[in-house]
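Sorry to interrupt, but I need a hand with the structure work. Please put the record directly below this note.
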Amino acid sequence: MELDQAIEKIRELGTNGINCDVETDDIVQRLTDWSHRFEFEVVDVDHATVAINFSTLPEKLSEFCQEVYEFCPDVLEQGYDCLPDMLEMAEEQGTEVDPSVLELIQGLDPEEEDFGLRVMERDLPQNMKLTLWWD
């Protein structure tokens, strides 16, 4: 959807991350700022989620990943940082893991403080998608 339509829907639903002190206007401002820096389309919005697909990525991707983390910590804390645990559970259950997921973490140390940021930095150019959520 066009950014104007997405903003209208965000305002209508009152999309927020109040648990992270992120209000509706903060989300609108962030998306507006991003729209001046790179191209994306908002593909889904609900009361606590905004999903986007990128057409172009920010020039300084590592700085952008840090910005995303500061704005929406759940992306890392409940997402990228959890990959090692998810892989361990898959192994225990005998579930096959998509090779692209294994590629994302190859050569990275899950114990490193910036593990999730590095994974996000690898994932965004491959998938050109990002879901922000606050719960």
Observations:
- Strands lie at 40-46, 49-54, 129-133.
- Residues 3-133 form one domain.
